[in-house]
Amino acid sequence: MSIHVIGVDAHALGWVAVELRDGAFVRAMISTTLYDIVTNSSGAAMIGIDVPLGMLPDHWRAADTLAADHVGPRRGSIFRVPPQPVWQETTFAAATALCREITGAKMHQQAWAIRPKLLEANAIGDRHPGLLIEARPELSFRAMAGEPLEHAKKTWTGQAIRRTLLAREGITVPARIGPAGRVPPDDILDAAAVAWSAHRVATGTALSHPSPPEEHAGSKIAIWH
Amino acid sequence: MLLDTPPDPYVTLGPAVVEALDCYGQQDLQGAARILRSQLRRFDPVKAPPHLMIMSAALLYARWTSHDTGNDSGLRWAWYGYRTALVLDGADTESAIAATSILAGVLTDRADFTLAAMLWEPVAAHHQQAGRHRDHVAARLSMAEALHKAGSCGTAIRQATVALDAYPAQEEVTGYGVLFLIRTLHLLQACGRCDEALALIRRWQPRLPTTDTGRAVARLLGCSWLGSADLAEHQRVCAGRGGHRLDLRSAQVRLAFLAALGNPHAPANDESVPGPSLTGLGQLSQPVVEALTRVLRRAGLRR
User: Fold this and answer.
1) How near does any CA of chain B get to the CA of A136, in Å?
2) In this complex, is the C-beta atom of B49 within 8 Å of any C-beta atom belonging to chain A?
3) Predicted ipTM?
4) pTM for the full predicted model
5) DSSP H or E segment with residue A27
6) With an 8 Å Cβ cutoff, are B72 and A204 in contact?
7) DSSP line for A152-167
8) Chain A 151-170, CB below 8 Å of chain B: which residues?
9) At what angle do helices B52-64 and B94-109 cross, to 10 degrees?
């Protein structure tokens, strides 16, 4: 086997990516656009991304509810993704009003905050069908651990546990990772966890929420781990 | 539709692949793709585990539907085939290279030139290392064309030059060689680097085909590629040339190439051949059609 995959996480200034070859760390990259990461992916067979890919026309996605239930105490890291039309609004007030109109519930401010990255990722996903999958680090870590994680990712203990889980899976992120080293550690660990899930998808060992994925307009919507 | 219990790929896809190949043998490409599509629908290109039988069906399906750019399923299966070849056989193996070539071709057809160029590179390197000059040149030219369409014209032309230089020097350029030369000329022509194209023609003139059939094929390919409509389209992505003289200089390149073949004027019916799809072949003599078809099929430009 010789396969390389990439895991991508959004961070404050753009995107951070971790590349694995045969499941082991190769490099970390940062970029202001996801497009740059895709076009510099050097033949990566799969790119996992910690951003919702695919929305439904008139209801919440099953993926988010199932994944949130699965991560237990860390469920706050997975928010519900409103229907497609909500994302076309340009202000949070308009978006949440439309969300309430369509679904009967407001959208989360945290969801709105990632709107630019969500739109960017979905545009790239539409352009490259079959290359990108959605993964959530907390779900990946939970799968690695075999049980929900108690400690949050920004805590000392939380980070130590996540590093240990990755190392147990053969992913050791070195101390020096070039310019990507400027990114907060939890974002690097998240990207690595997403890459782990991408590797599992590529090698046919991943699971998804829901299973089978929801389908809309030819796209399959699921969170993989 | 997905089934709860995954079907056995050998049972479902094995007969389908055989039947599809029969269809393909009878030139029924659509029928062949339809057969595979009906069985592949039982699998999910993301969820399906790496499996040889699924990979075979996926890659054939992707190859045969590559032109259908409105349908994403071919590309999804091309990615599956690529991943599976890497997982089952490893990079730099024949199956991985075949899968990579198919994926790169599908991406090219979908105008995803940057990713396609990235994938052509290892294919070219693999063939080069294996000493397969023709395959190496073909893959490197495909990479050059993808880079060119992505707007990386300087790199594209350097790669095309490297590719042409790799063609065995002592050989008369019949068939593939002519096509490689013409594809390079086309890149130069589209970028307005017509003086370089004319110099290239002069350099290669002694090696151009001498038989009637060889020259007829070369003329047809020359008319087709060096007069194609995408020259103007390239202006949008290429900043390095004088647009207003493009038509005149382009015509010069085409005429110079035809003159180098010993006939400065293209046959009238050749003018109607629209680009590399080469419809209207019925107007040509059978040996020419066969030779041309072989060349294009081998070069992956015609099925």
Assistant:
1) 17
2) yes
3) 0.87
4) 0.84
5) strand A24-31
6) no
7) -TTSHHHHHHHHHHHH
8) none
9) 30
